[in-house]
Amino acid sequence: MDDDTPYPPDRPASPYSPHALHSIGELARLTGLTVRTIRFWSDTGVVPPTDRTPAGYRLYGPDALTRLGLVRTLRDLGVGLPVIRQVLEREITVAEVAAVHAEALDVQIRTLRLRQAVLRAVAGRGSTPEEMELMHKLATLSDQERRRLINEFIDSAFEGLDADPAFIASMRSGMPELPEDPTQEQLDAWVELAELVQDEGFRAGIRRAAEDQTRAWKESGRPDGERTKRAAQAIKEGTEAARRAGIAPDSPEARPYVDRMAAVCAEVSGREDGPEFRSWLLERLETGNDPRYGTYWRLVAVINGWALPEMEPATEWFTAAVRATTARG
User: In the chain, which segments carry CATH 1.10.1660.10?
Assistant: First the structure.
């Protein structure tokens, strides 16, 4: 029996008196909660009645106002009633509850951001339902599942090849790692990267480049990582100088720059510069210059918060310049 009964004549009129007893209706008016909600919380034991009237109506002491305020706050934060009861009975502290729920909210926020990234990608691309389902799966992978996906991609590129271990190690060291609080750009980059490494055309291109690098490594008899680093530095510096001078890669003025960079590439490859080497070099550059390879490292850099790689424009300029000078002879 519960209703909005008036104060009995022998009870203090002030609802905040230390001796005041309140009906459910009075508590509802004082707190803004509904009678139904207070009754439910009372039935679950989080706000038990202090007494009952002779007619059987529940009466609540002044501490009920404090308890109701705390219960409402914790419920608004998503805390369940069993946990709230433990807090009220001093079995656990509010601080402990807050820590657990803050962690849970972090997970929920991260999940929502991942979903947001998927929806934005779907909206931007006009994706089909099947593509949307795939992107959602990619976005919600765990850290371990993301590493497994990238490792499987690297394994497929180098499986069965006697490739330079240092080069493979450098690939694995560039593992994309989403931070605990990723930005929208990082989430979008991860979705794009996950799609890229599962693209069969991209995998086939990386496989061809890996096979070519393995052959070149064996022919040069030098560690591929060391060779690549020195050649890359020469190409980076040479193309930067050419671009600063406003020289187009297909112009005659590009030849001195190409000659200097090609000479370094010939030296680190254990070959002699000349027409035969230039043809060989162009083939190497074109085989390994899939623009999606540059996209791969750009996306990894965005995800990991690294500085964006600088070699992609340098390699493009050098490849175009070698192609032009080789054609002119």
Answer: 24-92
Alpha-carbon distance of 217 to 224, in angstroms, equals 5
In terms of C-beta distances under 8 Å and separation of at least 24 residues, what long-range contacts does 162-169 make, across chains too? 162/214, 162/218, 163/210, 163/213, 163/214, 163/217, 163/224, 164/213, 164/214, 164/217, 164/223, 164/224, 164/225, 166/223, 166/224, 166/225, 166/226, 167/213, 167/217, 167/224, 167/225, 167/228
For residue 146, which amino acid is it? R
Instruction: Read off the tokens for 299.
Output: 């996306």
Residues 6+ apart with CB under 8 A from 155: none
Residue 8 reports pLDDT greater than 70: no
Q: What is the pLDDT of residues 170-187, one digit of tens each?
A: 788 888 988 876 777 887
For the entire predicted model, the pTM comes to 0.54
User: In angstroms, rounded to a whole number, what is the distance separating the alpha carbons of residues 241 and 234?
Assistant: 11
For residue 242, which amino acid is it?
A: A
Q: Minimal CA–CA distance to 16: which of 76, 63, 80?
A: 63
Helix, strand and coil content of the chain, in percent to the nearest 5, comes to 70, 0, 30
Architecture in CATH for domain 24-92 = Orthogonal Bundle (1.10)
Per-residue confidence (pLDDT) for residue 231, from 0 to 100? 84
